[in-house]
Amino acid sequence: MAGLIGSKTPFFLLIPILSFYFNKSQVGKIDLILVTVTLFIPLISLQLGEASFRFLKQFLNSKTKIISTTIIGLTANALFFSSLVVIFFLMFGFKEIILFAVIFMSSFIVNNLLLIYRGLNEIKSYALLGFLSGSFTLILIFFFINQRTTLQDVSVLFGISHFLAVIISLFKSSILKDFSFSKFNKKIMYSLLIYSLPLIPNSISWWFIDLGNRYVIRLTLGEEYLGVFAVAARYIVMIAFINSFFLLLWQDNYLDDRISKLELKSNFHDFFKIQLSIVIFLISISYYLIKFGAGAEFIDSYKLVGPIALSLFFSSLSAYAGVEYLKTKKTKKLFFSTLKGGFVNILLALVLVNFLGLYGIVLSSMIGFIFTFYLRVKDSQNLKSLFKVIERKLYVGILVMSLIYLIQILGSVPVIITTCVIVLIGLIYWNKKIILDTIVK
User: Fold this and answer.
1) Which H/E stretch holds residue 332?
2) Cβ of 138: how many Cβ atoms within 10 Å?
3) Which of 144, 165, 197 is the last residue of a domain?
4) What gap in Å lies between CA 59 and CA 188, rounded to an integer?
5) CA 6 to chain centre
6) Is there a single domain that holds both residue 183 and residue 208?
7) For residue 90, what are the domain limits?
8) CA-CA distance, 430 to 390, in Å (whole number)?
9) pTM of the full predicted structure?
């Protein structure tokens, strides 16, 4: 868990921290770069890291060939991308591209190295890299940021932190011993690509929609609105990555056939309850979350927390449903379900932003994820049976969320505080079995 959360923390805490030192336009710019990076990583890597994780799980005896082939492939892709960045910079002199390149390359290395560590089951190296990359970034920024700090300074601190974390984790890992240029294997590379290429759309589903939404905001409303949207979205997406730890744990067990159908239903029900509970709680505290967790000029961001949280909730359900296709290796169906959902989102965003502003953007992404989830459930009898377990609670949960959201927008301070307390007590009672089981274990 430390590895997953630690590696993602800088991406999401960075925006709230910067909101105390930079204006809306600058925050919008750095947020656009960060989200673009998360989209480019699977595109430039061709998801070779994800493929190596899956192959190492199945063919650990061939780990030297798999690791060597993966690292050489990733290095070639990274060098090609770096060359394009240099050419672009020399031609146009776009300063922000250097900022983007530093953040991208450091994140590219960390993300793919984490996947290889997971495939090798090197839990200590995985946790160490994730924890150190996140901790070093936040520590350096905390000590060096001030009113004179530029966005370029932030990117340099980001890159140094990740580089140090990678070096330290490699000394604790066996990867360097298992790597050899002579072990590069064309057949393995072909097999890796056959598996990995169809995964790209699914891996970028949230970021494709999220980035598309941000460019629509930037082109239609401007960077200041993008800054307001970014602060609200960052708190919500950060929670999603905490929850994704449970999804990854379940995914590993499910892909390795370590879980029965009965356990599958039970785990899905628990996953649903945890996701829904966190979203409801976040909506209940959204005003104070933004008031105390971001700069004063970003206070209006709290109005977007609820809708974005609901959108991300459907994104999580969609990602959960996508694991069924990984299990059966039907990655082409992942491709088309994601492509259709993304198309619906972007099309609606271009239309609704003109009538509803930022709310139109959030509504379009919500519909896009619901549509993707629907396509995946419709195509699998197993997923249909899982959905029936939570269908009624889902509708009740949405009604509760809507009521709490209205209280946040229209209620007085005492009413909002009372609602937060009631929601917290209610959610603890609703999840008491999960909490007790966790404590006992």
Assistant:
1) helix 331-356
2) 18
3) 197
4) 11
5) 13
6) no
7) 1-197
8) 14
9) 0.76
